[in-house]
């Protein structure tokens, strides 16, 4: 088997991000603390250039290189660009927060870039091995980022929990993969799918393998009953890391689920559909109900994430291309919304003060009417209130589920999102109808304010004109 | 029974014994050493499977490096053995039950029914000059080049994370900078002459 | 029956290797004392036998009849096991060693890997000895030694990787053959791989815990290190292991960088044909002796390194240099 240099072209975005990460790593060694901003700018420039690189190598038809371990198709291109942009914004929000807390180190951005690389690998994975390695690369970077504030006990504890549970999940996934390999004789998605179409489900090894793979996936996605790590990790990590953790990796997790279940185990759709229904229903129920009891906004958003994961799974379990594109739409919208939500938390935090409790949002309207309005849009979007984009996201997913005759699942989804609306709207109530306890003004840099405003406004703009993004998702899945 | 089969059973027995000792010994250092033995015997089993590269690398990496560092930590930690054993008897039935279920499941799934010799023919033994190392290298750097590269990046992230999370400049560290040492000049850097008024003579009493 | 004969034949070969080796070790200790004495303008041992030549035998007899003392609260099994674990790998490594073109016990393809694996296992003897002795000094030494050996093993492994890239084989015999050529000793790897040659040898010195890297024993700080509690034959076994390892490192250096059994004058018109008559084994022995002499020379002349300097040398100097050379070697081989 000869290695062909031309197969490197589709991988250019990965090579580029890896080079940027290594470059920042080395450059950062030679900088004083006050020049550290250069690492930040290099990282951000790298992410923006990566968008161009990805567009440059993009082609209408899918390409599979490296003997079937890497694929570049519409979905991978779209999701990669989404990952770059969301990471870009996540770093931008993080900048001031990190500087105030003496966490502004080159490693933060290097690890972030490696996490981005891991996500890219997951998005483009076309064999179980690559998917697993990408997942590990992402997870390892995230473990380190969660523990980034070394003096924070909660952070270290969260990182430890994340690490141990993540390792268990990886073990499950690998165990399942090994069984699937045993049953089909390959780890490449294409060959596995081909083998499965031939044999079907009579092989017991395959059933076990599938169960373990789904459990591993559910762990990584944070679907109930494998969600235990999420609230603690979201709570314990520095809020900038929570922001990063809760946004871009969701795109990668969606891609992972798509690649594993649809590309690899597609012929077993009838079997994993049932499992996903259980996961989705439980996630929507538990996430929304428990979120009501939370007083810490990071924990609340963690439970909200769990419920949103349920919705993402809804789209996938439908098993139609409408369902997949609805799910992708939902994931992108969720990532942008969560970016904005945590962005507001960062915005209100100052040196020595974390705006973590719900009380801290009392009377935000009087302190900063503009950002209160932004927060309101974001919360409405999470709840799925009409003019915002969150409404469309939920609608498309439910529509896809109904179209495959799973009406009861859709009804459960609607029911629990109504329950969920309570805690989102409670924040709006706190902001607009309660008296402020502290009178500090918002002290954020110009860049954060502008981007956050765009982020909030996007909820409304996309809500009014969802067709463009939807068409993009449909074409990516197509 | 052929000689190889005999060897296989001998080493398998040692492996099972060592693995049992790892979890039943009271002293954690003993457990770690039995784990070393377990690695060693499994490496020998791999050798019997004609996977000599993997066998040697298992010894080189796990026995030679990982377990040495692991032993280090175990030896230096003051582990409260009583606390470790607490609840052992109470938990034992549950543990045995889980282990039993897992064993049965594994037997059902990966047992001879699906992976027996009638399902998959026994691979022919390789000739004496067959180089496992060379074959692996050929595959790793062509077909699996992409995963190999990703794996190397994962290791790099591991290094960065470990150093980033643990490296602290301690103020009480008496570290010497050789570059500064070399730059020391003969004159004022080494010795400083301080002018002081002469002290008064002690008066004899 | 055939299998039984085969095993017997292998056992005979093993004895044929180990016995002379043990003899070499014994006289290496004498050589050490003599060489260092002369360097320090002393005479050295000269009482037992003519010019002290029976001194090692006397030492061995003395150690054999001494009592083996078990310290209180020592872990008995591990305490006894430790010396064996330390000499086992030192002897087993000779299995793949080519004494001349066709004189080798096991001519395996992955010989170099096997050697690497065995040298990495050697550290267990020291660590277990340090822990099982239930003594603070011994334990400190075990920790020092473990960290040092793990650190230098990496540099050593990378140096070997450069050699295998240059030779294109993991088989020790092939590595020697790759150094053959019409230029005699100018063909050997020590010229193109000079920095690697130095690094390998220095790492070898550190790996065997010899001066100037002998902090594991560090008499002035931790008495005698990991074997402070050992006496009699158990101590002697540690001693044997250390010297066997030194001879092994010397011989490997000769194999990998100094052309093994090849004649240094091969290719030179008159001299070459004359010296080609000398058996290869003699050449290998001479080269090994030269390197082994360096070990003694170091001990007589260098002061001991400080521990943090040892670590710095290993991690920050040797490993980066070897990595650069791996890249360079790969580049040259590819071109």
Low-confidence stretches of chain B: none
**Global geometry of chain B:** elongated
- Specify the helix fraction band of chain A: over 70%
Backbone structural class of chain A: mainly alpha
Number of strands of chain A: 2
Distance between the termini of chain A: 32 Å
- Order the strands across the largest sheet of chain A as they lie in space: 1-2
Proportion in helices of chain B: 55-70%
**Share in β-strands of chain B:** under 5%
- Figure out the total of helices of chain B: 9
Mean pLDDT of chain B: 81
Q: Name the overall outline of chain A.
A: globular
Q: Can you tell me the residue ranges of chain A where pLDDT is under 50 for at least 5 consecutive residues? A: none
Largest chain interface and its two residue counts? Answer: A-B, 38 and 27 residues
The count of β-strands of chain B is 0
Round the Cα radius of gyration of chain A to an integer and report it: 21 Å
How many alpha or pi helices of chain A?
20
Rg over C-alpha atoms of chain B, rounded to the nearest angstrom: 30 Å
What report would you give on this structure?
The complex is a heterotrimer of chains A (478), B (205) and C (335). With 478 residues, chain A is mainly alpha-helical. Chain A has one domain (5-477). Chain A contains 20 helices and 2 strands. The relative contact order of chain A is 0.09. Chain B is an all-alpha fold and 205 residues long. Chain B has a domain at 130-167. Chain B contains 9 helices and no strands. The longest helix of chain B is centred in the N-terminal third of the chain and has 25 residues, at 52-76. The N and C termini of chain B lie far apart (105 Å). The model of chain B has no long low-confidence stretch (mean pLDDT 81). Chain C is mainly α and 335 residues long. In chain C, 67% of the residues lie in helices and 0% in strands. Chain C has helices at 2-39, 55-64, 76-92, 111-121, 123-132, 136-167, 172-177, 194-207, 219-222, 232-257, 269-275, 280-301, 307-334. In chain C, helix 8 (194-207) packs antiparallel against helix 10. The mean pLDDT of chain C is 83. At the A-B interface, helix 4, helix 5, helix 6 and helix 8 of A face helix 5 and helix 8 of B.
């Amino acid at each position: 088997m000869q290695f062909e240099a031309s197969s490197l072209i589709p991988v250019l975005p990965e090579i580029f991000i890896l080079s940027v990460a290594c470059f920042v790593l080395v450059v950062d060694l030679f900088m004083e603390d006050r020049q550290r901003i250069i690492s930040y700018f290099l990282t951000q420039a790298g992410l923006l250039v990566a968008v161009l690189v990805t567009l440059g190598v993009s082609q209408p038809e899918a390409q599979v290189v490296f003997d079937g371990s890497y694929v570049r198709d519409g979905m991978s291109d779209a999701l990669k660009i989404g990952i770059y942009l969301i990471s870009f914004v996540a770093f931008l929000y993080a900048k001031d927060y990190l500087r105030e807390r003496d966490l502004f180190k080159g490693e933060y951005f290097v690890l972030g870039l490696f996490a981005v690389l891991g996500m890219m690998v997951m998005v483009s994975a076309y064999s179980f091995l690559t998917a697993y390695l990408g997942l590990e690369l992402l997870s390892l970077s995230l473990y380190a980022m969660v523990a980034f504030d070394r003096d924070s006990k909660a952070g270290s504890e969260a990182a430890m929990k994340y690490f141990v549970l993540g390792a268990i999940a990886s073990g499950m996934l690998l165990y399942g993969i090994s069984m699937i390999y045993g049953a089909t004789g390959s780890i490449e998605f294409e060959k596995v799918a081909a083998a499965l179409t031939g044999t079907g489900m009579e092989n017991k090894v395959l059933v076990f393998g599938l169960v373990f793979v789904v459990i591993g996936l559910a762990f990584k996605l944070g679907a109930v009953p494998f969600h235990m790590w999420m609230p603690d990790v979201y709570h314990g990590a520095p809020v900038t890391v929570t922001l990063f953790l809760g946004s871009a990796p969701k795109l990668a997790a969606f891609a992972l689920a798509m690649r594993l279940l649809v590309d690899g185990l597609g012929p077993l759709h009838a079997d994993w559909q049932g499992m996903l229904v259980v996961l989705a229903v439980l996630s929507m129920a538990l996430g929304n109900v428990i979120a009501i009891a939370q007083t810490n906004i990071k924990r609340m958003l963690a439970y909200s994430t769990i419920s949103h994961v349920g919705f993402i799974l809804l789209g996938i379990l439908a098993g139609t291309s409408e369902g997949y594109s609805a799910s992708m739409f939902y994931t992108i919208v969720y990532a942008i919304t969560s970016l904005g939500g945590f962005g507001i938390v960062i915005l209100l935090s100052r040196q020595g003060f974390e705006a973590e409790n719900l009380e801290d949002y009392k009377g935000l309207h009087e302190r900063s009417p503009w950002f209160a309005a932004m927060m309101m849009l974001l919360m409405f979007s999470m709840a799925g209130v009409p003019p915002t984009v969150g409404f469309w996201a939920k609608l498309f997913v439910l529509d896809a589920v109904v179209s495959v005759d799973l009406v009861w699942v859709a009804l459960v989804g609607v029911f629990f999102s109504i329950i969920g609306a309570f805690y989102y709207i409670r924040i709006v109530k706190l902001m607009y109808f309660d008296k402020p306890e502290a009178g500090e003004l918002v002290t954020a840099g110009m860049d954060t304010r502008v981007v956050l405003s765009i982020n909030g406004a996007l909820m409304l703009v996309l809500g009014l004109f969802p067709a463009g993004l939807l068409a993009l998702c449909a074409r990516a899945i197509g | 029974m052929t000689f190889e089969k005999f060897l296989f059973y001998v080493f398998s027995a040692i492996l099972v014994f060592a693995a049992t000792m790892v979890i039943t010994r009271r002293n954690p250092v003993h457990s770690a050493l039995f784990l070393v033995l377990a690695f060693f015997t499994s490496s020998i089993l791999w050798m019997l499977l004609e996977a000599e590269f993997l066998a040697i690398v298992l010894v080189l990496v796990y026995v030679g490096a990982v377990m040495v560092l692991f032993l280090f930590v175990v030896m230096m930690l003051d582990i409260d053995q009583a606390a470790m054993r607490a609840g052992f008897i109470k938990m034992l039935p549950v543990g045995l039950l889980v282990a039993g279920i897992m064993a049965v499941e594994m037997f059902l799934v990966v047992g001879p029914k699906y992976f027996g010799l009638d399902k998959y023919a026994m691979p022919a033994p390789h000739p004496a000059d067959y180089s496992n190392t060379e074959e692996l290298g050929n595959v790793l750097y062509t077909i699996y080049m992409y995963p190999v590269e990703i794996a190397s990046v994962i290791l790099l992230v591991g290094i960065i994370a470990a150093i980033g999370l643990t490296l602290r400049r301690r103020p009480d560290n008496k570290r010497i900078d050789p570059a500064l040492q070399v730059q020391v000049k003969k004159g004022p850097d080494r010795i400083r002459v301080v002018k002081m008024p002469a002290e008064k003579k002690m008066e004899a009493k | 029956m055939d299998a039984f004969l085969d095993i017997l034949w292998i056992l005979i070969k093993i004895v044929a290797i180990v016995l002379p080796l043990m003899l070499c070790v014994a006289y290496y200790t004498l050589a050490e004392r003599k060489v260092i004495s002369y360097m320090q303008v002393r005479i050295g041992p000269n009482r037992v036998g003519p010019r002290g030549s029976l001194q090692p035998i006397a030492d061995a007899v003395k150690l054999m009849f001494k009592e083996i003392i078990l310290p209180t609260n020592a872990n008995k099994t591990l305490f006894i096991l430790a010396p064996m674990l330390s000499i086992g790998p030192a002897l087993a490594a000779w299995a793949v060693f080519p004494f001349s073109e066709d004189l080798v016990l096991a001519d395996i393809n992955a010989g170099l890997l096997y050697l690497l694996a065995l040298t990495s296992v050697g550290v267990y003897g020291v660590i277990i000895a340090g822990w099982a002795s239930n003594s603070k000094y011994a334990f400190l030494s075990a920790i020092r030694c473990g960290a040092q050996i793990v650190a230098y093993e990496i540099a050593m492994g990378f140096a070997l990787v450069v050699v295998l890239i240059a030779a294109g084989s993991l088989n020790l015999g092939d590595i020697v053959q790759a150094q053959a050529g019409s230029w005699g000793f100018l063909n050997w790897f020590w010229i193109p791989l000079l920095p690697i040659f130095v690094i390998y040898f220095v790492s070898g010195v550190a790996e065997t815990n010899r001066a100037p890297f002998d902090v594991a024993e560090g008499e002035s700080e931790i008495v005698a290190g990991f074997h402070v509690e050992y006496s009699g034959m158990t101590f002697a076994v540690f001693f044997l292991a250390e010297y066997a390892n030194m001879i092994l490192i010397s011989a490997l250096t000769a194999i990998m960088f100094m052309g093994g059994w090849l004649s240094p004058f091969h290719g030179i018109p008159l001299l070459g044909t004359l010296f080609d008559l000398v058996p290869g084994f003699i050449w290998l022995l001479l080269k090994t002796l030269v390197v082994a002499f360096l070990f003694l020379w170091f001990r007589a002349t260098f002061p001991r390194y400080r521990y943090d300097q040892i670590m710095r040398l290993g991690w920050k100097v040797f490993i980066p240099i070897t990595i650069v050379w791996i890249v360079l070697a790969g580049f040259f081989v590819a071109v």
